[in-house]
Structures are given as structure tokens and as C-alpha cells.
Amino acid sequence: QVQLVESGGGLVQPGGSLRLSCAAPGSIFRFYAMDWYRQTPGKQRELVASITRDGSTNYADSMKGRFTISRDGAKDTLYLQMNDLKPEDTAVYYCHAETNWGKGTLVTVSS
């Protein structure tokens, strides 16, 4: 099992910003598309955003214009910049590539 390690979660007020990071082995990072998912208790895990090896991106409708996914090949790291956060964005955010998942990082949006 490949290790994906997320970081950057925390508590933020509505309207605030956070940047999540996901460190991945180069063997995964260089050859696969990568995604961010999120999950709240009692709900299915949902896709937040995807990025291909060549940098093409895709977003869930509710995240368009607020979230930006990117990848840094020099650092083998995936990012998710989240702006204008809303309470409904509160969730555990997971990094995903191929069949591999990280353990998640909790984002809480609350005043």
C-alpha cells in the first residue's frame, strides 16, 4: 500500500481559506491522476477535485470558483487551495491516487 499523507486541515471561520497538502511517493505522483475527496459522518465520500498528470483539472460543481487543485512535480505534492469556506465544507478531506488513499485531514468551518 502506497502512503499518501495529507496535512493542512484545521479550524477556520466562514469565508476563510485553507490549503491542504498531500505528499505522495514519486512512483505514484508522476504516473497517475490524483484527486481530493471529502466525507462527513453518515454520508458517502464525494469527489472534490481531480487533476491529471498533465495538469487538467475537474471540480465538483459546489467547489468551482472557490477551490483550486494543483500539483508540484518538484515536491511530489498535491495541493487543494480552499477559499471562501462555508460551514457545509466541514469534512475530512482525503487524497487519492489510483487505488491508494490517505488517512485524511479534518477541516472544520465554524464561527
Structure description:
By secondary structure, the chain is mainly beta. The protein contains one helix and eleven strands. Strands 2, 4, 5, 6, 9, 10 and 11 form a seven-stranded mixed beta sheet that branches. The model has no long low-confidence stretch (mean pLDDT 95).
| Quaternary state of the chains | single chain
Number of helices: 1
Determine the strand fraction and express it as a percent band: over 45%
Count every beta strand, where a strand is a DSSP E run of 2 or more residues: 11
For the termini, the CA-CA separation is 38 Å
Secondary-structure content class = mainly beta
Helix content: under 10%
Characteristics of this structure?
4-stranded antiparallel sheet, globular, mainly beta, 111 residues
Topology overview:
Elements: E1 5-7, E2 10-12, E3 18-23, H1 26-29, E4 34-39, E5 46-51, E6 57-59, E7 67-72, E8 77-82, E9 91-97, E10 100-101, E11 105-109
Parallel strand pairs: 2-11
Antiparallel strand pairs: 1-3, 3-8, 4-5, 4-9, 5-6, 7-8, 9-10, 9-11
